[in-house]
Amino acid sequence: MKPHKYRGVLAKRQPTLLPMELWLADFATKQRALHAQQEKLIAALFEDCGVPRDSEDGWQRVALTLAARHVKAFAPGEGPKRGRRPENLDDHQVTRKMNRIIGDGKSISDAARIVANQRGKGETKEAIEQRYRRTMADWKKAHDTMEQLRRISQRE
Question: So what's the pLDDT on residue 35?
Answer without folding.
Answer: 85
